[in-house]
């Protein structure tokens, strides 16, 4: 969302300053490009980098702005594309009565983003809790399996990769996962993480089973990272928030959101 907003605004003649908190542009979208067969994402970000340079957008990397610093810029327009972060509670939509996954304190539980960013060192046996049914969980499982880990996917859906059916990539994905030895546990949820395995319950029969594992990787719903937006709002400063910073969404919708806002500036 932020890259598209900067590109379109600059293309329309505005002087644009793009502040990126990380060392590279792209945020979580760049992480998705680390998954197997998704190199086109990295290519798209590289295209954005070339376009921003051509349009003379001032890009500041490693620049995490707080409210005071945003105000000090004295910009005519402020667009916030602060993205989203994985929830740290392990909350599952399939088990709404549990606000927090029991056993998180036992450790070795990581979000898919942490795995892709190489911020975690997972064990040999990995359980991926995939509530999204999309590339976030499935692609991370694929990457881990290709790296030699023994992977089990647990999903509340009736099939792995449910949300990918609209792209026809769901069957090839499952085929590749199966060939890599990934086990599918469908229509199920995680009741508890023991530190050495996950107590999994069938949502159909209620039958529980313990799946042994060294690491639990969660691919659950993210939450908008809107701390800066709330602080600017508290101070009465006008701004426009876009993309995952408003609510998590798919990349195509985030890009559209960035374009829509920039065209109205």
Helix content: 25-40%
Average predicted local confidence, pLDDT: 96
Strand content: 15-25%
In DSSP terms (H or I, runs of 4 or more residues), the helix count works out at: 9
- Alpha-carbon Rg, integer: 20 Å
Q: In total, how many beta strands? A: 14
**Structural class category:** alpha/beta
Low-confidence stretches: none
Q: Profile the largest sheet.
A: 5 strands, parallel
Strand arrangement within the widest β-sheet reads 5-12-6-7-8
N- and C-termini, Cα separation: 15 Å
Can you tag this structure with a few keywords?
single chain; three-stranded antiparallel sheet; alpha/beta; 265 residues
Question: What this model shows, in words?
Answer:
By secondary structure, the chain is an alpha/beta fold. Helices cover 33% and strands 21% of the residues. It has 9 helices and 14 strands. It has helices at 2-11, 27-32, 39-54, 67-73, 112-116, 135-146, 170-179, 227-234, 251-263, and strands spanning 17-19, 58-60, 79-80, 84-86, 109-111, 125-130, 150-154, 183-185, 188-193, 197-202, 208-212, 215-219, 222-224, 240-241. The strands form 5 sheets. It has a 5-stranded parallel sheet with strand order 5-12-6-7-8. The protein has a 3-stranded antiparallel sheet with strand order 9-10-11, with no helix packed on it. Strand 6 (125-130), helix 6 and strand 7 form a beta-alpha-beta unit. The radius of gyration is 20 Å and the shape is elongated.
